[in-house]
Amino acid sequence: MSYTVTSDNFEAKKKGESITEKELLELELNIDALVASEHLKKTVTTKPATVEETK
Amino acid sequence: MARIVLTDASVVINGVNLSEFITSVSLSTSEDVVDTTGMGSAGARTRVSGLADNSVTFEFNQDFAALGPEVSINAVGSSLVGTVTTCVVKPTSAAVSVTNPSYTFSAVVSEWQALSGAVGELSSISTSWPISGVITKATA
Q1: Please, which residues 1-55 of chain A have a Cβ atom closer than 8 Å to chain B?
Q2: The 3-state secondary structure of B33-80, one letter per residue
């Protein structure tokens, strides 16, 4: 799972960059609080459609 | 050695730089003093150092706007109050060096004042949090 930085005040990465859950846990950060306070936004990954699904 | 007047201290709480809202920061360490006096101590107490007790005190200018201290520390749905959170403090915002060491620690966010102030005064918050474990100092 990854997150997009939505704040200029987040230290580990710049606004617009992506950071993984693993990186956040290694930094011992509270992910839920960072999302709730809108410093991070969960990145929505869309699964590419398969040939079967497009038929 | 140059003295320092704090004008640009860096305070990062849970990965968020809140320095612009900070007006004061104090990082304190005290050691328990354990009495070891026994007979034959020449009439004077003897002592050794015991456990260290670390704490940090921050004073903030309150700001309820997005990315301010209230939302960063006490967000609806996931507040840091009552949790242990990583903090990093530096004398200035410059890179870590011998003359600008960083202090990293895990603080227990044991108290928070959502609103404090008197009529006509700036709303500010003074909060003191105990530190869990050691303070790690880095110079590079």
Answers
A1: 7-12, 24, 27-30, 32-39
A2: EEECCCCCCCCCCCEEEEEEEEEEEEEEECCCCCCCHHHHHEECCEEC
